[in-house]
Design goal:
single chain; mainly beta; Mannose-Binding Protein A, Chain A; nine-stranded mixed sheet; three-stranded antiparallel sheet; 3 helices; about 40% strand
Length: about 260
């Protein structure tokens, strides 16, 4: 019923005597909105989490950093996903490597050069074989730091800092020397995050983020399922008290 106050109820026990009990934290519907660790942005359309890393790394180091957080350099399945990325505010500070109003970061594509005669010709590939992504970028702008000896260039997605440009989805694709240093965008599957912001592995019990620290759920495909709520007894000998927002059935007595 959504009641937060102490609920006193009466029931008829054996022998006709009346028993009395108190419950607090009456279970109520909860909407779980956190499916990514802190610092990651969630997109429902792909059930994925995204994060921009500001520390400038070359392409290969960026690949390893993303792998260490159970992800990969981001690739995109459709225009809608790309529009979601472009619309985000990525908290990009001054320590970026390009103009303040323009942001570039490594993403998970490579441009393979097939002809250098009169103009550069080639095609985009997804950097990781076996990927199911179907979206490939359009023809790129070639970066200023590219080498004449390199036959493989790496993808940088450029977005714009100004909100009007960002929300119109304006962007550019660059094919750049893979050893240049740049910010980069990692992508990983959504996950279960508990009330203390810890990542929970598949199949484990946890208390999801929300307003009820007395829920216990099972993590399944990044979603809390089969949740069970505990009801707490009122703290004895205490008239006024405060519930702990992170610990089940833990109270602080506020009596003088």
């Amino acid at each position: 019923h959504g009641k937060e106050n102490v609920d006193s109820r009466h029931s008829r026990g054996r022998g006709g005597e009346t028993t009395r009990f108190h419950t607090v934290n009456v279970a109520q519907p909860v909407r779980f909105s956190r499916k990514c660790p802190t610092g990651w942005h969630h997109y429902e359309g792909t059930a994925s989490c995204y994060r921009v890393y500001l520390n400038g790394e070359n392409y290969w180091d960026a690949v390893q950093t993303c792998q260490r957080v159970n992800g990969s350099l981001a690739t995109f399945t459709a225009d809608q996903e790309l529009r979601f990325i472009l619309a985000q505010e990525w908290d990009l500070e001054e320590k970026t490597f390009v103009r303040k109003d323009q942001r570039r970061f490594w993403v998970g594509y490579q441009y393979v050069i097939t002809n250098r005669n009169h103009s550069l010709e080639g095609h985009w590939e997804v950097a990781y074989k076996g990927s199911s992504e179907v979206f490939l970028p359009p023809d790129p702008i070639f970066g200023s730091a590219m080498s004449e000896n390199e036959n493989v260039l790496c993808a940088q997605l450029q977005c714009f800092h100004f909100p009007t440009l960002r929300h119109h989805g304006l962007h550019s694709w660059y094919a750049e020397n893979c050893y240049e240093k740049s910010s980069f965008l990692c992508k990983r599957s959504q996950t279960c995050v508990d009330i203390k912001d810890n990542i929970v592995d598949e199949g484990y019990y946890f208390t999801p983020k929300g307003n009820d620290p007395c829920l216990s759920c099972t993590c399944h495909n990044g979603e809390p399922e089969m949740c069970v709520a505990a009801l707490c007894e009122r703290p004895q000998g205490c008239q006024q008290y405060r519930k702990d927002p992170k610990e089940c059935c833990k109270f602080t007595c506020l009596d003088p």
